Amino acid sequence: xxxxxxxxxxxxxxxxxxxxxxxxxxxxxxxxxxxxxxxxxxxxxxxxxxxxxxxxxxxxxxxxxxxxxxxxxxxxxxxxxxxxxxxxxxxxxxxxxxxxxxxxxxxxxxxxxxxxxxxxxxxxxxxxxxxxxxxxxxxxxxxxxxxxxxxxxxxxxxxxxxxxxxxxxxxxxxxxxxxxxxxxxxxxxxxxxxxxxxxxxxxxxxxxxxxxxxxxxxxxxxxxxxxxxxxxxxxxxxxxxxxxxxxxxxxxxxxxxxxxxxxxxxxxxxxxxxxxxxxxxx
Amino acid sequence: xxxxxxxxxxxxxxxxxxxxxxxxxxxxxxxxxxxxxxxxxxxxxxxxxxxxxxxxxxxxxxxxxxxxxxxxxxxxxxxxxxxxxxxxxxxxxxxxxxxxxxxxxxxxxxxxxxxxxxxxxxxxxxxxxxxxxxxxxxxxxxxxxxxxxxxxxxxxxxxxxxxxxxxxxxxxxxxxxxxxxxxxxxxxxxxxxxxxxxxxxxxxxx
Lengths: 282, 206
Hints:
By secondary structure, chain A is of the alpha/beta class. Chain A has helices at residues 2-14, 16-24, 37-44, 46-55, 64-91, 108-116, 175-183, 198-208, 243-252; strands at residues 99-100, 165-168, 187-191, 214-218, 226-230, 233-237.
């Protein structure tokens, strides 16, 4: 309380000029909001009278035009901000109906961060293979990785990646090479040659050709017409015209949160298939 | 309020002042949120450029002169992906409007780390010396494969350490995300380099 008094007296000492203005009457209204004790005083005297005098004029009709204009501008501005927020959010959402293998985590980035922070161990994960990235042919060059799902969508792999620069293979390729491509951020499109005819294969190939970080190969005994996979995610459909195939490719090719090894390339990989009778070296 | 509506000029003036204030506020926040020239983030990005540059140099040599297909594939992978990351660091530095080099390696990481760096003649953690690079450049075939693995394992361990330091010191989401990726990728690389190297050594002995 003491300090309040001090400032009040300081204020009045400093601004004697102001005080004079207040006493003049209506013109002093501008100073009513300065918050010192003098303002409080003037509120109850001269400006009160001026408020009364002005109150008569309020009877004029409200300027609806102005009110509507400002309201309209406000609504449009809020709408634009809302739309922008939605578009940004929507782009970060994966397409619906995708099977993902990250369990309670949203993507590779989240699960690898949880591992680094010690929030979870590899064994506790629903599918530990989503964070396993060892070259299985390192210790034993003849070793071939085995996968829990078909076709595989991540896990330990072979030391060579399959070329995935919009590469269309007409014969099956090694799972372990394709999974290495997924690690680099590629989407691998596989189809069952028993369920897709020549025209269908052409239609599917057109989605991959000329598109870096994608590859396509037949997968005998697949059991479903088409299966597309990226690291940790998969989508299967019997309809080769399913728009979700394109949505999957658009979203997951080089997706920042689902690429197990960001910045790696698709070039200079293996270009042979199992039909070439040439097992991958390494 | 009713009085305000009758004074459109005043209303517009108030709106204009508020919008100007908001604009200045947004600009100020955006301007100050970019790391400065002496920041941990800028120091890390500058040093990682240099650190990666040597990895690219080693990997390009191995790609050309090594013989093991698994090792040369790793070399190709390191040369291309670390070149891409160098581009990323440069883009950060340019966006932040800071120097692209400083001549003070590891200064951002604190006195202890800077001192370590000075003792090794300005080398960052894990970097090969000129002598080591010269020796490596004299080798070909499986000898080059093995030395490449040894040099790159040490190089990656140093890179992982730098990433861990920046995670401790920074809270910039862009930098933290990149540092975490570096740790994940380079740790996987280290394991693969060790396995492939041991495999080559076994084959040479047999």
